[in-house]
């Protein structure tokens, strides 16, 4: 679809998007949480540069993201990341078609840094500004390096959101269901913390789960609304399970003379030192979460009559979730998930969204927002 946007000073009309008749080079900035990212993407699908400065090491010390520290780190990283993105793409700011930035949802102080940088660049170089919804951007990560087109069902699973979305076109999306309590990534991080894994626990829990027996413990699959999710009951069930296993684990550690903890700093040391109980809890939790997601999405695909499904968000990097969903290809469904680096927060997905989506914020005065339901403005 062709969309016309105006440059900020001269108010020159600029065609953006498919059928605009020439190559679009969109530069985007993402800073909604703890990654400062900048990317330049050609025609919504071809990534010319993708720079991500992660703050994970800083926040790991505190066991979670500290908003004030995150905002300060974004300020330190932003100019470096932007320069690097231009350098890698071998492109000059004058040749950029439009500048894009994440407007929300996210941490307000963090969003402000990236969004103001994107607005400033569009003002300096007199180009259109395109504000993007972070959740919509996660879904659009699926357009990178593919020829994917709507309609499809998207399963958005991130640290803050869990939604089943009916994507009818680049302009029309309906949220069919969402979590009524924890997001999937949040459940992963909380369960990881209660079994003693360092922040962010999701990726490590996934890694440990691969060595465990996923049928070792039966955990509950919540029964909430048709396409909705609830993960708080599962989290409590894991807590109870861990407490009941603790006695046995301590006994077995004493017998084997092993420990999960580094005696110096009391933090977990190496995956291989986790007990078989812990590893089986990880595998059983992962099995329950992935099965829950699959059941709901399969019924949405059938009942709404879709044959395409895409995964989106940080948790779409999960190995078992990917395995289960890609198995749907054997049942005739088309399945897509972004490459790992485009699942977790990045700016390439923001650039792709700015190119394809009609649900964008094109007023340079748009303000950041912390929470929103869904993908619309
Ligand atoms: O999309 P994202 O980068 O940030 C948000 O927008 O929230 O998602 C981050 C979330 C974290 O909760 C992290 O633990 C989770 O994604 N995550 C994973 C994996 N990789 C990242 N969870 C499970 N398995 C993974 N492999
Ligand atoms: Zn995200």
Q: Can you describe this structure?
A:
With 377 residues, the chain is of the alpha/beta class. It contains 11 helices and 12 strands. It folds into 2 domains: 2-145 and 342-356, Nucleotidyltransferase, domain 5 (2-Layer Sandwich); 152-338, ATPase, nucleotide binding domain (Nucleotidyltransferase, domain 5). The protein has helices at 56-60, 67-89, 108-124, 134-140, 184-194, 201-209, 232-256, 276-304, 319-326, 340-343, 348-356, and strands at residues 3-6, 13-16, 25-30, 35-42, 46-54, 98-104, 129-133, 152-157, 162-167, 173-178, 308-312, 334-336. The protein has a 5-stranded mixed beta sheet, sandwiched between helices. The radius of gyration is 22 Å and the shape is globular. The two termini are 19 Å apart. Bound molecules: 5'-O-[(R)-(carboxyoxy)(hydroxy)phosphoryl]adenosine and zinc ion (ZN).
The overall average pLDDT, rounded, is: 91
CATH level-two architecture of the largest domain: 2-Layer Sandwich
Distance between the termini: 19 Å
Mind summarizing the main beta sheet?
5 strands, mixed
Number of strands: 12
Q: What's the helix count?
A: 11
CATH superfamily of the largest domain: ATPase, nucleotide binding domain
> How much helix, percentage-wise, in residues?
25-40%
Which sequence of SSEs, written as H and E, runs from N to C? EEEEEHHEHEHEEEHHHHEHEHH
Unreliable stretches covering 5 or more consecutive residues = 259-271, 373-377
Class inferred from helices and paired strands: alpha/beta
Please tell me what the overall shape is.
globular
Seen as an oligomer or otherwise, the chain set is single chain
């Amino acid at each position: 679809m062709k969309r016309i946007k105006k440059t900020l000073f001269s108010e020159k009309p600029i065609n953006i998007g498919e059928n605009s008749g020439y190559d679009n080079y969109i530069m985007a900035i993402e800073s909604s949480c703890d990654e400062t990212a900048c990317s330049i993407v050609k025609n919504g699908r071809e990534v010319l540069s993708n720079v991500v400065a992660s703050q994970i090491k800083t926040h790991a010390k505190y066991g979670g993201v500290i908003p004030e520290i995150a905002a300060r780190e974004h300020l330190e990283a932003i100019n470096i990341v932007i320069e690097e993105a231009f350098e890698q793409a071998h492109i000059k700011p004058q040749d950029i078609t439009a500048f894009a930035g994440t407007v929300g949802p996210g941490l307000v102080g963090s969003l402000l840094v990236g969004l103001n940088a994107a607005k400033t660049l569009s003002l300096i170089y007199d180009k259109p500004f395109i504000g993007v919804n972070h959740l919509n951007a996660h879904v659009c990560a699926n357009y990178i390096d593919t020829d994917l087109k709507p309609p499809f069902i998207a399963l958005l699973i991130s640290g803050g959101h869990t939604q089943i979305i009916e994507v009818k076109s680049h302009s029309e999306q309906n949220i069919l269901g969402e979590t009524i309590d924890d997001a999937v990534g949040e459940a992963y991080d909380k369960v990881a913390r209660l079994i003693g894994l360092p922040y962010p626990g999701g990726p490590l829990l996934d890694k440990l789960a691969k060595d465990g027996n996923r049928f070792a413990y039966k955990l509950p699959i919540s029964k909430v609304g048709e396409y909705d999710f609830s993960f708080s009951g599962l989290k409590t069930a894991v807590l109870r399970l861990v407490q009941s296993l603790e006695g046995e684990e301590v006994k077995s550690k004493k017998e084997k003379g092993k420990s999960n903890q580094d005696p110096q700093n009391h933090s977990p040391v190496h995956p291989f030192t986790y007990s078989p109980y812990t590893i089986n809890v990880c595998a059983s939790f992962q099995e329950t979460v992935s099965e829950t997601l699959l059941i709901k999405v399969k019924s949405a695909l059938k009942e709404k009559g879709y044959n395409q499904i895409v995964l989106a968000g940080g948790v779409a990097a999960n190995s078992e979730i990917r395995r289960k969903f890609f198995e749907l290809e054997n049942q005739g469904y088309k399945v897509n998930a972004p490459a790992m680096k485009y699942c977790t927060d990045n700016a390439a997905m923001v650039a792709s969204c700015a190119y394809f989506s009609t649900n964008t914020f094109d007023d340079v005065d748009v303000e950041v927002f912390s929470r929103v339901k869904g993908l619309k403005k």
